Amino acid sequence: MMLAKNAVKYQAVLVVIGLIISGYLTAYHYFGGVPLACSDNGVVDCAAVLVSPYASLFGIPVALFGVLFFVIAIALLVLRSREYLLYWNTAGFLFLFYLWFTELALGKICIYCTAVHAVVILLFFISLFTSGELKE
């Protein structure tokens, strides 16, 4: 299967994309002067999501959790630990339910957050459908 053969490459590209976006959002959190290229009115309002009470968990910006998630995913890819990568991506996928709840509660959507959600979903499904086929 083509997906299984290239799964690590696809996941590596997705992880880098997720890391870049999460890094950008973390920089926005810590360095308010970082410009946020996103709508600031209507349903799509990144700033409203990123400064909401839901933007931090235990005093840590959710975006920083994203950076940590993708750094660990890189390590698992480098170590070729597909089983743990599946577990890790499953945990990331489950965490999305909290993130979706927050956007629903706010009535606002952050396009950057949504992009990260899409990356995590793709990582999860690639891991899920290829973990058994990639034993080395």
Give a brief rundown of this model:
The chain is an all-alpha fold. The protein has helices spanning 2-30, 46-50, 62-78, 82-106, 111-130; strands spanning 56-57, 60-61. It has a two-stranded antiparallel sheet with strand order 1-2.
Structure description:
By secondary structure, this protein is mainly alpha-helical. The chain has one domain (9-130): de novo design (two linked rop proteins), CATH 1.20.1440.130. It has helices at residues 2-30, 46-50, 62-78, 82-106, 111-130, and strands at residues 56-57, 60-61. The protein has a two-stranded antiparallel ribbon with strand order 1-2. Helix 3 (62-78) packs antiparallel against helix 4 (82-106). The protein is elongated and about 45 Å long.
